[in-house]
What does this fold into?
Amino acid sequence: MTRDMNRLKVVLAETKRTNRWLAEQLGKDEATVSKWCTNTSQPSLETLFQIAECLDVHVQELISKDKKYDSE
It folds into this structure.
């Protein structure tokens, strides 16, 4: 079972930004950003902070929470 490690796709939608826009901001390939959005691969910690800065969100908002542990 694969776990979603990041919420990048959700946060991009919430901020009305596209994969292409983010790729341009970071100087990355659009395919790379797409892999992050589908959780096929993960950005480095440094890149995660750059993404948060571009989207004007806290880095914690980009990281998934495991819902099953929230109620414990």
